[in-house]
From TrEMBL:
It comes from the Bacteria. InterPro entries: ClpP/crotonase-like_dom_sf, Enoyl-CoA_hydra/iso. It comes from Gordonia bronchialis (strain ATCC 25592 / DSM 43247 / BCRC 13721 / JCM 3198 / KCTC 3076 / NBRC 16047 / NCTC 10667) (Rhodococcus bronchialis). PANTHER family: ENOYL-COA HYDRATASE, MITOCHONDRIAL, ENOYL-COA HYDRATASE-RELATED. GO terms for molecular function: catalytic activity. This is Enoyl-CoA hydratase/isomerase.
């Protein structure tokens, strides 16, 4: 994977990737179009997800963007082409390719952390919501955006919003055009934390490093979390059974001697 993330070179691809110390970073590199996702970008993101899924040494993923805006959604040229004949196989395939990216990001076997500056709108908000943890700045704007374009939400937008903020705020955003900014988004559950931009990288690195320290355990925790929390969520008794075997595996791996406060091999 490339580790060249210089946004100034036109020779660079529209999606940049890097894996360092167990942390995989995906960087949208289409700043001239506010990082709108093209079909080429969708394929590159899919390739990145394939790598994360197959590489057991990766324990965390960071999704970020070059430029001053996280993501303005699907590229309008793709949407315009689809609008000429929405029922055509090519139109369905094109829009589905972009929306399928969010499902892939949302189902990765490790924690995903979205670094969102400037704003995320429409399908760009889908990408931010697909991440397990979304970190924004105090002035980042999270906007449903579909209403303003006079089109129905897509890509599971309503489901993602509802899971994060509940019915009332979902309707306020998707049907009434309300946007959330900074701490308000955190308070409503749409973001994990609002952090000053110059402190974001350090904050996110701390989260990612903890997950990447033990990728095998992290992947098992994530699998159990998805099984238990759903949707749909399971009962407490079912959660106990889901966790039992995996916790016993982790205890066996840890070993009896490592529990001693005096150090391994001491009782």
């Amino acid at each position: 994977m490339s580790d060249d993330n210089d946004p100034g070179s036109d020779a660079l691809p529209p999606v940049l990737t890097d894996v360092t110390d167990g942390v995989a970073t995906l960087t949208l590199n289409n700043p001239r179009r506010k990082n709108a996702i093209t079909l080429e970008m969708a394929q590159l993101i899919t390739d990145f997800c394939d790598r994360v899924e197959s590489d057991g040494q990766i324990g965390a993923v960071i999704v970020r963007a070059n430029g001053e805006y996280f993501c303005s959604g699907a590229d309008t040229r793709t949407l315009a082409a689809a609008s000429s004949d929405p029922a055509s196989p090519d139109a369905v395939a094109g829009v589905s390719a972009v929306y399928g990216v969010f499902v892939r990001i949302g189902n990765l076997p490790v924690p995903t952390i979205a670094r969102v500056v400037g704003g995320a709108v429409g399908a760009g908000l889908n990408l931010a919501m697909a991440a397990d943890i979304t970190v924004i700045t105090p002035d980042t704007v999270l906007d449903s955006g579909f209403l303003a374009r006079s089109i129905h939400p897509g890509g599971g937008h309503l489901s993602l919003l509802g899971k994060a903020v509940g019915w009332s705020t979902t309707i306020a955003m998707a049907a009434c055009g309300q946007a959330l900014t900074g701490q308000e988004a955190v308070d409503r559950g749409l973001a994990h934390a609002a952090v000053a931009e110059d402190a974001m990288d350090s904050y996110i690195a701390t989260l990612a490093a903890a997950a990447a320290k033990d990728p095998e355990l992290t992947r098992r925790v994530m699998n159990s979390a998805r099984l238990e929390l759903g949707p749909p969520a399971v009962s407490w008794s079912s959660a106990l059974e889901i966790e039992r075997g995996v916790q016993m595996w982790s205890m066996s791996r840890k070993g009896q001697s490592s529990w001693s406060s005096r150090g391994p091999g001491k009782s």
